[in-house]
Amino acid sequence: MERTQRKTEGDGKKEGTDEEVVHLRRQIGLLPAVSLIIGTVVGSGIFIAPKGVLMNSGSVGLSLLVWALCGILSLFGALCFAELGTSFTKSGGQYIYLLETLGPLPAFLRLWIEFLFVRPAVAAYVSLAFGRYVVEPFFEPCEPPMGLIRLVSVLGVTFVTVVNCWSVTLAYRTQIALTFVKMFRPGHTENFQNGFEVDSLTLDRLPLAFYNGLYAYGGWFYLNCVTEEVINPNRNIPLAITSSMVTVTILYVLTNVAYYTMMTPAELLLSDAVAMTFANRAIQTIAPVIPVLVALSCLGALNGGLFGSPRMLFVGGREGHWPLIFSMIHIRRQTPLPAVMFQYPLAMLMIFNGEIYQLINFVSFSRWFFIALTTLGMLIHRHRFPLLPRPFKVPVLIAVTFTVACFFIVGMSLFSDPFNTGASCFLTLTGIPVYYVTVHRFRLPKRCRRVFNFCSKQMQILLEVAQQEIQTY
C-alpha cells in the first residue's frame, strides 16, 4: 500500500519506486531476441543430425533438400508462434497458448512433461555433448573417460544456471557472445559434387530423415516464453523469428555443403564427430580449435534453453498450475530464481543416467506433439474469435500445413520407435491424475497442505523471492 501511495507523489519518486518494484523488466531488444533464437537452435544438432539425415534420405542431394525443407517447415512453425506471441501478451510460450485456446488440462500436461522429463533430458543431452567436445581432444586417439565427460557436463550446466540466476542482463549478453562465436565458424564449399541417387531411398525411411533434420532446428519457440520481457513485442517477435530462421536455414544448408566437400557420404556415415572430421580435412591448422567452438555452440544452446524455459514454469505458478513459489522473483536481481533452480537437480540426474542418448526420440515426440496441439489451438481460437486483434497474422495455409506435418511426424515416431515414444506418451498421461488431485480440485489432506505451505515459506525466505508487484502483460 505504501509503495502504491508513493507512486503518486511525483515523477522523481515514481521513477525511484519503479526501480524498487519486484517484476520482470522489458530488457530484450531485437539483437538479444535474435541471439536467443539462433543461439538456442544452433547447438549440438548440426553436429549430430547430418548423419541421420543422410542415412535415411539415401543421397547427398536429397539430404540437402531435406535440410532446406526442414528449415522451411520450422519457419512455418515459427511464424505461427509469432502470431500467438503477438495475440497473447503473457510469457509462457506453449503453456499459455494451450491454456488460452484448448483449456487448462493440456496446458498442465505441457508443464508436467516438460519440466519433469523433457527439459532435464534436453539440458543433459546438450551438456554431455559440450563435455565430450571439451574432453575429447586431450585423449585422442583413445576414448575419453565417461566420468570426466560427465564432470565437465555438470560444470557447464552449473555455469549457465548461475548466470541465469544472477542477472537477466548477464544471461542475454552471454547468449549474444556465444551466438556470434558459433555463427562465424570457418568453412569451405569449393569442389562440391552433387548427387541425387535414389537407389537406397525407401519411403518409410524418408520421414525419419525429416525427423533428424527437425531435431536440429528445434528451439525456435523459446522467445515466446519471455514475451513479457521483450521490448515492443508486436514488432520484435515476428522480426526476430523470421530473420533468425532464415539465417539458420541458410547456415545449416551451407554447413552440410561444406561437410560434403571434404567427406564422401560413406565417410560421413562412419564419423561420430562430423565437425572434427571436416576440420581435419579442410582446415588442419585450426583443427584443434574446432572442439572448443563446438563446445561453445552447445553451451549457447544450453544457456538459451535455460533462459527461456523457466518462464513457462514461472507463468504456470502464477496461473495456479504449479506451486506458487515458482512464480516468485528475486527481490534484488529480478530473476525467476526458483524456476531456474528447479531444472538443475533434475538435469544432474539425467547427466548421470548412462542411457541419456536414448532420450532423443522421447524428447522429440513430446515436443512435436504439443507444438502440433498449440498450432491446432491457434486455428481453433482464430475460428472462434475472428474479430480478436492479431498484430501479426500468419496465412492459414502455412498454419494448416505445419500442423498436419507435426502430427505426421508424431505418427511416424510412434511407428519407428514405439518404445521411447510410448514411454513419452505414458509419462504425459501420468499428469492427468495429478491435475485432478492438485489443480482441478485440491484434494490433498490438511496435514500435507500445512507441511507444503511451511516449506514454501521457508524457501521464500531462504531464496529472498517475492511475487510480482505489478502486472507486466
Automatic annotation (TrEMBL):
Keywords: Membrane, Transmembrane, Transmembrane helix. The keyword GTP-binding does not apply. InterPro entries: AA/rel_permease1, AminoAcid_Transporter. GO terms for molecular function: L-amino acid transmembrane transporter activity. GO terms for cellular component: membrane. The keyword Nucleus does not apply. The chain crosses the membrane at residues 28-48, 60-82, 94-111, 147-172, 208-227, 239-262, 282-302, 359-380, 392-415, 421-439. It is a multi-pass membrane protein. It is found in: Membrane. This is Cystine/glutamate transporter-like. It comes from Pleuronectes platessa.
